[in-house]
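INFO batch 0412 | record 1 of 1 | parsing
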Amino acid sequence: MPATWPCPGPAGIGDELAVVFDRARAVRLLIVPPLFEEMNRTRRMLIETQRGLDGLGVDSILPDLPGCNESPQAFSAQSLGSWRDGMAAAARHFAATHVLAVRGGALVFPTRLPGWVLEPAKGAAILRQLLRARTLSAREAGLEENSADLLEAGRNHGLELAGYRLSAALVAGLDAAVPQDEGQRVIRQSELGGSPLWLRSEPGEDPAQSAALARIIAAEASA
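INFO prediction complete | emitting tokens
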């Protein structure tokens, strides 16, 4: 069910949304979603994972990153720092005991929490995918754009990529960011079976993958 939580932003503290399965149980999992379109492609899978965790006795929280989905904040005002601050605020508000960071979520999750990262992605790799999509789109329109030139411009002035207006701080931050690591366990796609949903062209779901992910987390959290 939806819930709100107080999130810091440029205009002060404001309410953000989260999907929450909360029965005040001992294990409370904060799920930090992937970034950009990977977030949209995996959202159904993650909510189904939450339902599976609920049946296995684990509470879970899936917050919006500031500026994303239903967030009232502007995406163009975001940086990796603002996303880290937001996820830390969500963890405190919901009293999370564990964390699951998915793909680019591993760049912004609260590292003080024990837990898991699912196929963590480097910021530079995410940025390359966005730049490649822009140059291919430009080529189809009869234009020539160069990824290196776009990246340099983005570091200085920000950049429009895949329908997102990235600030200069976000471009520079992504280019240098590597997954945070304080001992969280890495989960590989092979443990879930099937193909990665973040690679699909459209949002999708895979009940078997969601169930496998929920079982792994519930079993290891109680070990």
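INFO post-check: The longest helix spans residues 37-55.
INFO record closed
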